[in-house]
Model the fold of this input.
Amino acid sequence: MGRKFTVCAAVWLVIGIVFLCTGCVLIYVFAKLIRNKIDSSLPLKTGSDSYNDWVSPPAPIFFQIWVFDVTNHDEVLKLGAKPNLNQIGPFTYRETRRKGNITFTDHDTVLYREKQWFVFDRSLSCSKCDETRNFTTVNLPMLTIANLVQYEYNVVKDIVDFMLRLSKEHLFINLTVADLLWGYEDSLLKDAKTVFGLFNISLKMDDKFGLFYQKNGSDTGLYEIYTGTDSLDHFAEILRWNGNETLDFWTTPIANMINGSDGTMYPPFIDTSRAYYLFSSDVCRSLEIRYVNGYELKDIDLDRFVVPSMVFANASVNPDNLGYCTPHAPENCLPSGILNGSNCQNGAPVIFSLPHFLYGDETIQNRVDGMHPNQEEHQSVIDIEPMTGVVMNVAKRLQINAYVHNISNIMCVYFKIVFSWLIYIDLYIYQQHTLDLTIKCSFHTKFLKMSMCFICS
Done:
């Protein structure tokens, strides 16, 4: 009896070992098959599975705008009241992107330009949101002119001040949403060019001004990225932008680095323990993203990455951000939560932040009424399929602000306010593109080949 038991145990042990070894082999083979499929399908080359989707992204992209209306602008100027801001929106645009001027090189890279088109969608906007809607905002052209001469001789500032007085321009201006976004003629800019020319001061603007002036139907520069043909280790990462491997907007090598991709694709087999990066031409810098959690969406496992608070932290908190203090000096560093973008915005006193100054210093949030930062609503997120590095969902959020401060000899920007400077909010942007159900099923079919998508219609 004992001998039979021993024999049976030995047989089952052998069977167990065989099954275990078979399972290990199958796991290895299965993983190898997936890697081979990704290696063959993911690289960017004419005719590959990923190429057509890369040229013309299939996911719908929604570009939404919220503007901030100053409801007490007279009290701000005359009595030094705290600005009260009323958020209006969303004004929704359907965005289309298509890459062109595509040139493959002999060293595993491809050059291209990507054009963007925006079409207003009234049905996806708020009930009273139309491009012709008026609101009161800060006069950014006037502030730009004053900002460009703040370090000039007093005689120059006196002449510019005289020009501003003659123009009868004020710190606040009433505009339509279309004016602010796509541009309007501003006679002040024409006059400023004449005056600036007398003193060899550069004004890199024409007679129209808009936050997205000439960007509808244009591209954001010449990109050169790795195709992954030779190796997927740096797939989709940017090598050069406008022919340069580094930027020249900032004051340290770290700040001027071009890191990561454009935020739509990453190298496969995502490592959640490390940081990834995306380069944003909107804010003229690279942004770090960090893993926060994984979740499942329509049978696809995704890793969620976010832009952490340290990215816009003051240099005393994050020393790597010293290069974003312009002019270069610790005393010129802005509080946590905001980025001085004037160097890459033709001298306009533009300040970037997350919406409602999320993660911003309380001194910023408290200088205006109407800010209600909320992490769920105002955080930027990127959801990545970890095996392929394909981005399935992006929610990019950005707030564009104006830096308002008193400039000696320029009386038009003097205002009776209790603060020496103020970050005034123009608008904030919510840009989202998410692969819909049909595209997700197609993704399974193209890249994974290991699950049936019965719910596709």
